Each structure stands twice: as structure tokens, then as C-alpha cells.
Amino acid sequence: MIILLLLLSFPLFAQAPKLEQEKELDVVDFKNVKDVLKKDGLLEEAKKKQTEVKKIQELRVKSNRELYNWPGEDEFWFFASEYWLVKEVSVLKWDIDKPDYGLDKSLAQLLKQVGLARKKFRIMGMNSNHPAHLGMAWMSDEYCLLFSIPFVRSMDLSKLEISLLLLQDMLRVDEGWLKESIRPENLKNLIGTNFEGKKPDLSPVFQVAKNYRSFINEKGFSFQQQFEITKKMNLLLKSQPDLWNAYVRLLGKMDRLVKSQNAFADYVKIYPSPEMQIRWLAPEEKAL
Amino acid sequence: MKWLLRLCCLNFFLCLNLYAQEVVFLSTFLGHVHQSPSRLSPSLTTIQCGHPVKVIKDPNVLVSEDWERVQVADWKGFVWKKHLSPSKPDCLQGRFPKFVDALNLDLTELYYWGRLNDHWEEGRAEP
């Protein structure tokens, strides 16, 4: 009976209030701490923090890697073409005091007249004879156009005539002939790549500068390309006789200039040839 | 005594207003702070895209509406308004910093690259 009583009273002893020391021990017991943390949702919070930290670390690694990106196609042509202009400043002589021709407005007006609205462009006059004008290899959403001030002065060109000259260059840019002609061979392997941990290959930038020179002095555009551009200009302007006549007048002036002045004799090396262009524009003779 | 105090306060607020400085940023790849408000005037210093410049509104200096009088470090000069942006622009130097560093441009090249932006006539054919 006594044993039975003892056995029955044992659980009562077990449920007696805990001592202070026992409570402290519970706190130190990591199993209980874990339970408390679970109850408070702190474990989940810690997990969230861990994921956040991981994400931030990944982003940091990614943005650090992005510092070493090789430019994309558009940015490359900006760097390469402007680099060429900077390197050739003494040859092209663009850093000079020049009159304000107001070409930004007259070219915009011409583009609107021929239905080529929303085109962005930048123009710069140079004090060198060569190249007489050029639509540079540039970003796809903008045209970058150069023209020689002595060239337009020698012919006493009007704003409209200069604008027509630049419009021709814009059509050439659309065809992408210059870009393809001066494009370095290894460019496609570098565009948009990453060079983290190694030296960037800048050879295409320097190569483009060389290629510009050889294009202007040797290669130029072909007769076929000139024929295509002349036909495009014809199509674009034929509905507006005043513009078409101004274009023919411009070609006539250029033809006379390149034949009469040695300073511009190299013009036909790049743009063959104003004389042929006038012929291509002439109406076909019908056989009777 | 009261009127003197009022006058001082008025002067103080007027000065605050007149010489208020706003910060804007260069938006071209490289550019110049010019000595006078002309694209051909000598360059005081070359700055790069994203560089913050303080606009100085000084009623004693008349500036054409195309130009902004600015302060960059100790230089006080003029920058073409077209080349300034009220918020930090998306610069090529920021997107390809190591590539631009590797070009290793010397001072003359930096100068002329900035000058290029003084010479471009930009336009757009609006419909």
C-alpha cells in the first residue's frame, strides 16, 4: 500500500514548479532555445536574412563582373569612330572656328519633306578637303555626318544643297556599306563579352582608325553602290521637282569642281563619280 | 532697431535666393567648362559624363539662355545647357568603366574628345 502511494505521488513531485536554476538551464539548453526561436518566428527571419544576404552577394559579384563588360555593337562604333576623330584632329581639322550653317534645321526640314521623320543626326564641319563628306559608322539610332567646309565653300553650296549631300550619306549609312568595309575581323567575337581577370582586347578600336584611313584614301564606295544610292535619291526626290532639280544641280557643281580643282581630285576615289551619277539620273531615251 | 533687424533678415534671404546653387550633371561622354559662354572659348577644365556641377545664379553675370554658369571644384565657368542633365545620366563610362580605363587616353586626347562635343550640331526631324 505504501509503495502504491509512493508510486502515485511521484508524478506530483515531477510537476512541482521549477527552480530558478532549472529555468536558467532551460534557457542554456539549445534545444529549448530552438523551440523559443521557432515560436517567435525568428528562425524564419534568420532564413530570410540569409537569403537576402546571398542575393546581395550575388548581385555584388554580378555588378563587379559587369564592370569588365566589352561594349555592345552600338557603343563600340561610338567609341571607335570618336576615337578616330580625336586621333585625326590635326588631319581632319575639325577643331576650328566655323560659321553656323544652321544645318541642323535645314537637314531636319529636308528629312521631313521627303518623309524621313524621327531621324536623329549630328553634323560636324571640318577644315580639311578630304573626305569631302562622310556618314560615319555610328550607333543605330542616330546618324553621324561630317562635311568639308572648303568643299562646300568652293562650290558655294546652299543650305539645301549641303543637306542633300548629307541625305545621300544617310542613305549610305542605312545600307551599312562603310561599317561592313571597316569592321575588324575579330569584332564579332568580342562584342558584349566579359574580360574579367584579363586585359581587354582593344585592337578593334585601333583597327577601325586604320580602316577609316584606308577607306577614305584607297577603297571608297564602288560604282555599283553609287548607282544604287543615286537611284534611291531619285526615288526619294522625284515627286518634288524643286528638290530633284537641286540634287542634279549639286551633282553638276561637284562634277565641275572635281574636274577643275586638284585639291578635290581625290573625291572620286571615295565617291565615283558625279558625272556618272548625272547620267544615271537622266531620263532614258526611248527608241523610236 | 526693429527696422534694422528686418532689413538684415531681408538682405539675408535675398542673398540666399540670388546665390542659390543647384547641382546638375554633365551628360556627354566628355566636356569642357569654358572660360566664357562660347563653344570656342578656352577650356578651364575637362570633365566627364556624370560629373556634378553647381549652377551659379548670379544676377550680376548675364548669360545667354543656351549656357549655364557653373562651378566645378575651384573653377567658375560656363557649360552648354544642352550638355547638362538635372539627374545623373546613364554614362558609357559608368557602363564600361574598365574598357574606358583601358583606352588609356592621355590629357590631349581627353581634351579633344571633350572638344568634339563642342562641335557637334545635333538635330532631329520631327514629324
Essential attributes:
heterodimer, A: 288 residues, mainly alpha, 16 helices, B: 127 residues, alpha+beta, SH3 type barrels, 5-stranded antiparallel beta sheet, two-stranded antiparallel ribbon, 8 strands
Structure commentary:
- The complex is a heterodimer of chains A (288) and B (127).
- Chain A has helices at 2-14, 20-28, 30-40, 42-66, 73-87, 89-92, 103-113, 149-154, 159-175, 177-182, 187-190, 203-219, 223-237, 241-260, 267-270, 274-281, and strands spanning 120-126, 133-135, 143-148.
- With 288 residues, chain A is mainly alpha-helical.
- Chain A has a 3-stranded mixed beta sheet with strand order 1-3-2.
- In chain A, a hairpin with a 7-residue loop joins β2 and β3 (143-148).
- In chain A, α5 (73-87) crosses α12, α7 crosses α9 and α9 packs across α13.
- The mean pLDDT of chain A is 90.
- Chain B has a single domain, classed as SH3 Domains (SH3 type barrels), CATH 2.30.30.
- Chain B is built from 4 helices and 8 strands; from the N terminus they run αβββββββαααβ.
- Chain B is globular.
- Residues 13-18 of chain B have low confidence and may be disordered.
- Chains A and B meet through α5, α7 and β1 of A and α3, α4 and β8 of B.
